[in-house]
Amino acid sequence: MIRVLIVDDSLFMRTILKDMLENDPEFDVVGTANDGIDALKKIKESSPDVMTLDIEMPKMDGLAVLKKKTEIPNFPKTLMLSSLTMSGGKMTQVAMELGADDFLLKPKDVRGVRGLDRILKDKIHNLVKINYIKRSLPRSTAPAEKAVLIGSSAGGPPMLDVLLSSISTPLDAAVVITQHMPTGGFTASLATRLNRISSMPVKESENGETLSAGHVYISKSGFHSIITAYIADSGKKGGRIVHSRSAPVHNVRPAVDKTFQSATTVFCPCCLSVILSGMGNDGGEGMAAVKQQGGKTMICREEDCLVYGMARSALARNCVDQVLPLDRMGDEISRIITEMKG
Question: With 41 labelled, which of 104, 201, 221, 229 sits at a CA distance of 20 to 30 A?
Fold first, then answer.
């Protein structure tokens, strides 16, 4: 059983999280705490494997708890609970820099609790299973001639954990991940987290930066990530990310379709597009464009996805080459990229 400590000043959130976990025999809620001082006491008393930690609390907040991490032996893996606000995003990034292991976006109300159950459990499972990677050798900054484009939304972050951690050797391609998230720094926090478990360096995208092989870029929330061409010093065509504040597509920005479609003119046919879990239709048109321009396409099977709307949108367009279980996707992505002729 995975031993969990729940720390939140909201009785509502403590009750919701406790009920969700106690209904599953894989989890043992060893205690709850309503502030940081109580949390530190119960960490020492109960030795939890994982702690869910609110940021804003009386007496001692979540950031202050994380600052005590080096003073406490066997400090638990920490899942931050973040509010869907600009300040919530900034504090989440600080929490990740202080050593938090992952974050969960708090629902605004009771209606937002729907779907939280599986996301919470997936994240806790991933925290217990996934090991951090130490990268000692500098990575090449050679312009990428191939690209892996990944799109996801609801249920996507835990799948990105599994996918990136399963790619044991850096790819001879740039990886661009477009994950629907609120603005305010949450994509930066996601990049910080994924950077710890990936064999390739992971960062939030910057406007105008060139795409390097063996690097992963998380599309910055609030902007479409448009892939444009440039001529590298070698004389070969490369790709760069341009941030666009043009109108949302499918009510989201960044939109997967925008990234997929723009990348076709730069990287196809040496391009692989991948869709994971997500609600809505974003990604279907973009994947069809990749397929039409000679690229490869892949989606995750429905059983492994929280929501299957985005993948189903691609299936409806008859543009999917492969439907795979999540635990096989990393190896298959590596194989495809290795066999692609740049």
Answer: 104
Token readout for 36 is 């940081």
- Known catalytic residues? 153, 180, 282
Three-state SS at 198: coil
The mean of the pLDDT values for the chain is: 93
Domain definitions of the chain by residue range? 2-129, 147-339
Alpha carbons 299 and 288: distance in angstroms, whole number: 12
At 205-221, the pLDDT tens digits run 999 999 999 999 999 99
Q: Which CATH superfamily is domain 2-129 in?
A: Response regulator (3.40.50.2300)
- In this predicted structure, the answer to whether residue 109 has a pLDDT above a threshold of 70 is no
Q: Options 3.10.580.10, 3.30.70.100, 4.10.520.10, 3.40.50.180; which CATH number does 147-339 get? A: 3.40.50.180
> Given a cut of 90, is residue 108 above it in pLDDT?
no
d(CA 324, CA 342): 25
Question: Would you say the CATH fold of 147-339 matches that of 2-129?
Answer: yes
* Alpha carbon 118 to its chain's center: 15
Radius of gyration of the chain (CA): 20
Distance CA 342, CA 338 (A): 10
- Three-class SS of residue 126? helix
Assigned token pair, 186? 């949450």
C-alpha to C-alpha distance for 333 and 207, rounded to whole angstroms = 27
Indicate the Cα dihedral angle 100, 104, 110, 114, nearest 10°: -150
pTM for the model stands at: 0.92
Q: Find, among 102, 11, 109, 88, the residue nearest to 52 by Cα.
A: 102
- Dihedral of the alpha carbons of 166, 284, 173, 127, in degrees to the nearest 10: -30
CA dist 62 to 69, 82, 96, 241, 270, Å? 11, 10, 11, 35, 45
Please give the Cα distance from 309 to 77 (Å, whole number): 32
Judged against a pLDDT cut of 60, whether residue 138 lies above it is answered with: no
Determine contact, residues 158/122, Cβ cutoff 8 Å: yes
Four-CA torsion 32, 305, 77, 200, nearest 10 degrees: -160
